[in-house]
Amino acid sequence: MRSHRVAAGLVIGLLLACVRVAVAGSPSATDAHPDLVSPYQPYELELSSFCPVPSRPAGVLLHVRINGGRPLRLVLDSGAEFIVIGAKIARPLGLSSGPEMDLVGLGTRPAKVGMAQSVDVGPVSFRNCRVALVDGKVIEGADGVIPLSMFSDFLLRLNLPERTLGLIPYLDEQGPAAFSHRAAAKGDLLLVRTVLNRKHNGYVVLDTGAFCSATSREVAGTLSGSRIPADLPIEAGTGAATGQLVFTAVHFEIAGQELIPDRVVALDLSNLSRHYGVEVVGVLGFPALSPYVLTIDYRNRLVKIEPKLPASPRQRRRSRPENSPTPLALR
Q1: Are residues 165 and 265 in the same domain?
Q2: Nearest to 188 by CA among 331, 37, 59, 64
């Protein structure tokens, strides 16, 4: 019974691994990109640990002001497309409410599109930002989520061990107005090719907003020596779901690197596969990604995953691999 409770706690919020939107008859609502109004220069944003369960980091937070309101604690989510907050939190912020839409994850959840005149993340300011408003809580222990792709006018260096987010201007451009980066829906998601346990090909979502990692039930059922226990209830922001702990080690091979999460849950990912038009075989959540530094180039749809380098030059020379990790092409 105890393991069931632990598992359920791990997967709370996993559905936010892939927050996507579908607005009937309103394509502009999803295509609009926030306007960067701060100077186009380097920034380094400090992140704080998100621990919904004491002493168990499950993500990183940014402090965000919407329309000049109180600071909100938003989980930095590489699997989200919009800022998502509860309608109750949104009321005093003066957000205008627009068309309805669906948030698509393990299930679907209705939401409304609001428009924020200003969003301030430390020294970085945006205008005209779409915000998804939902009834009830978005995620336990935080006020909502903010998408990593909101900063896609920059080359991003997400240093999870040091809890910093570096925003690096593109050197060959004068600013965001000089290039028309408006990533397609799939381009906003860190969706990369993977091979699971050397035999299952598909795509995996790199998701800093997921509390744990997951694989599809179909793949989990074919793993050698796997033992799938009874269903566990999962608290999911896009609807109730069930999952099972996977007791066999799951190896995600990505561009020659192997990532092996400590805990993996088997889930029905067919809704995600249908929505994205590719076979989604897994999700690598925050615990699996936390030892790494991710460099994300939304403009060219590339991501690089590197382990944190030791502090001293001598240690860096000793630990430097023969071949630097290859940038991965995003779907």
Answers
A1: no
A2: 331
155 domain-assigned: yes
Model pLDDT for residues 265-309, shown as the tens digit of each residue: 898 888 888 878 899 999 999 999 999 999 999 988 898 999 876
Minimum mean pLDDT among 198-212, 221-235, 277-291: which range?
A: 221-235
Report the C-alpha gap between 165 and 59 in whole angstroms: 13
Closest C-alpha to 115, from 29, 24, 238, 237: 29
The winner for highest mean pLDDT among 20-29, 52-61, 281-290 is: 281-290
Number of domains in the chain: 2
Q: What is the pTM of this model?
A: 0.82
Supply the pLDDT for residue 189: 76
pLDDT of the residue at 5: 34
- 60 lies in the same domain as 197: no
Question: What's 267's domain CATH number?
Answer: 2.40.70.10
Rounded-to-integer distance, Cα 189 and Cα 19, Å: 9
Contact between residue 44 and residue 165 where contact means Cβ atoms under 8 Å apart: yes
Token duo for residue 107: 């299930």
Task: Write the CA distances from 58 to 22, 61, 84, 227, integer angstroms.
Answer: 28, 10, 18, 26
Is 249 in the same domain as 171? no
The strand pairing partners of 193, in sequence order, are 203
Tens-place pLDDT, residues 81-134? 889 999 899 989 988 777 888 787 767 788 889 999 999 999 999 999 999 998
Q: State whether 198 and 171 are in the same domain.
A: no
- Give one DSSP letter per residue of 17-36, joined into a string: GG-EEE-TT-HHHHH--PEE
Cβ partners under 8 Å of residue 16, min gap 6: 75, 77, 79, 80, 84, 105, 138, 139, 145, 207, 209, 210, 237
The helix (H) or strand (E) run that includes residue 259 is: strand 257-259
Clarify whether residues 213 and 120 are in a common domain: no
